[in-house]
Write a structure and sequence with these properties.
Blueprint lengths: L1 H26 L8 H13 L3 H8 L3 H10 L1 E5 L5 E3 L1 H14 L9
Antiparallel strand pairs: 1-2
Helix pairs in contact: 2-5, 3-4, 4-5
Length: 110
C-alpha cells in the first residue's frame, strides 16, 4: 500500500510539474526587441513628457526595457522637460553594435 502511494505521489508530482512547465511556457509572451518604429514612438512620447511606464504599457514592453533603451539612445543633452534627450537613430546604432559584439570579450587592459 505504501509503495503504491509513493508511486502515485511521485507520478502526480512530476506529471503536474511537467504540465505546469509546458503550460507556463505557452502562456509567456514571446520575447521581441524594439523596432525602429517603436524607438520613434518612444522618442515622440518621451519628448511630449510621458513617463517611461506609460510608454512601456503602450508599446508592450517592460519599464526596464524602456529605461534601458533611453540610456542606450541618450545624447547627453537635456530636453525641454529637463530630462536626458533620446535619439532613436543613436539607440538603433548602439543596439546594432552591441548585437555584433555580443559574446566577445573586450581586450585586456594593461
Amino acid at each position: 500500500m505504501q509503495k503504491r502511494f509513493n508511486d502515485l505521489f511521485l507520478h502526480y508530482f512530476f506529471y503536474s510539474r511537467r504540465r505546469f512547465r509546458r503550460k507556463r511556457g505557452e502562456n509567456m509572451s514571446k520575447q521581441r526587441t524594439l523596432t525602429m518604429r517603436d524607438r520613434q514612438v518612444l522618442a515622440q512620447r518621451w519628448e511630449a513628457g510621458d513617463g517611461a511606464v506609460n510608454i512601456a504599457v503602450e508599446l508592450g514592453f517592460s519599464p526596464a526595457a524602456i529605461y534601458q533603451e533611453l540610456k542606450r539612445g541618450s545624447t547627453g543633452e537635456l530636453d525641454q522637460n529637463k530630462r536626458l534627450k533620446y535619439d532613436p537613430e543613436k539607440g538603433q546604432a548602439v543596439y546594432q553594435a552591441n548585437l555584433r559584439n555580443r559574446g566577445r570579450r573586450p581586450a585586456a587592459r594593461k
